[in-house]
Write a structure and sequence with these properties.
- InterPro entries: Split_barrel_FMN-bd (IPR012349), TR_PAI2-type (IPR007396).
- The chain is built from six helices and six strands, in the order αβββαββααβαα.
- By secondary structure, the chain is of the alpha+beta class.
- The protein has a single domain, classed as Electron Transport, Fmn-binding Protein, Chain A (Pnp Oxidase, Chain A, Roll).
- A six-stranded antiparallel barrel has the order 1-2-3-6-5-4, surrounded by four helices.
- The protein is globular and about 60 Å long.
- The relative contact order is 0.20.
Amino acid sequence: MHPNPLFRTDDRALCDSLIDEIGFGMVFAQTPDGPRVAHTPLISTGDGAVQFHLARSNALTPYLDGATALIVVNGPDGYVSPRWYENRDTVPTWDYVALELEGRVQRMDDAALEAFLHKAIAKHESKLGGEPWRAEESSEKVWSGLFKGITGFAMEVTERRPTFKLSQKKSAAERARIAGGLDEAGKAALAHLVRSFAT
């Protein structure tokens, strides 16, 4: 987390919306072989927990139940050039959005894992437009094969450490130029956030 309090927020709904929008993150935890990370789809339950699943063969899977772990969700990011500042006698920086979540992890039972999978599929299929694919289109053999190969987990989040570093220290005119530069660099989502976050 960035140490500058200007880049932090206590807005839990904003954090949940970031998890919802990105839908993917990294889970970090300690194992007997050292620290490990797994990349996984995420769903915020809206009541302080985040659900995810890992392959049973993942190096973290045997060690997560009951462990304290860290989830990181990365939002838009991009290089910010001094050419967009009023005074070019400075250095470049990087604007970004990131969320760290810490908490105790518990393994989900089969019913909760089944519900998680259906919710995740419906959520992501709805974003694609057109006729959505439904889990029921999988044969029992295919679905049970998937199910036997994964383990579901839920983290009860005790700490949220969000960073929204979006050039808040710059003037409104500079922020407009930064957003324009980011748009031209193909960073439309980050440009939108720079415009949205007031100082």
